[in-house]
Amino acid sequence: MSRTPVIQWPEFQHETLLLVEDNDDDVFIMRAAWRKSGISNRLETVRDGEEAVQYLSGSGAWGERAKFPLPTVILLDLNLPKKSGLEVLQWVREQKGLKHISVQILTASTRAEDVQRAFELGVNDYLVKPSKIESLVEMLKAWQAFAQFKAFPGAPGGKV
């Protein structure tokens, strides 16, 4: 299996992405799949909805923006402690300075109510976590190729 992403847009490769995931095993699997898929973006991780809000608002342990830059993309689980993924999504969309960030739900939930509510709140995409790491790697490769053009619309092949 190749470690090279399908498409690389250099500016996107330098962007930080934020994973909001409370399950340590899922974080470990995601980081392994991240490496195997060849995605070179920095992946910051927070463990619950309140930490996500703190990271995004630059408060608490994440107060130093040079060290913890705003992400271009948030990969957000729905089932989180303290604040749910939907609550975090709603909060992000209410913040004037964060509306440009692409929010991608990455969850095991296939409930129609969750999907509908996420889109009502302004999620960019809703991805269901595959059960096998190989499938996750393939999903991440495809997602990365697509996500960079959404983040940088002027990229070759992106929306102008």
What does this structure look like?
The protein has a 5-stranded parallel sheet with strand order 2-1-3-4-5, with helices on both faces. Helix 2 (24-37) packs across helix 6 and helix 3 (49-57) packs parallel to helix 4. With 160 residues, it is α/β, with parallel strands linked by helices. It contains 6 helices and 5 strands.
Which secondary structure elements does this structure contain, and how are they paired or packed?
Layout: H1 10-13, E1 16-20, H2 24-37, E2 42-46, H3 49-57, E3 73-76, H4 85-94, E4 102-107, H5 112-120, E5 125-128, H6 133-151
Parallel strand pairs: 1-2, 1-3, 3-4, 4-5
Helix pairs in contact: 2-6, 3-4
Q: Sum up the overall morphology in one term.
A: globular
SSE order: HEHEHEHEHEH
**What is the overall pLDDT average?**
83
Question: Helix amount, in percent?
Answer: 40-55%
* Strand order in the sheet with the most strands: 2-1-3-4-5
Output the number of helix runs. 6
- Number of E-state strands: 5
Give a short account of the largest sheet. 5 strands, parallel
Beta percentage is 15-25%
Low-confidence region ranges: 1-10, 153-160
Secondary structural class: alpha/beta
Distance between the termini: 33 Å
Compute the gyration radius: what is it?
15 Å
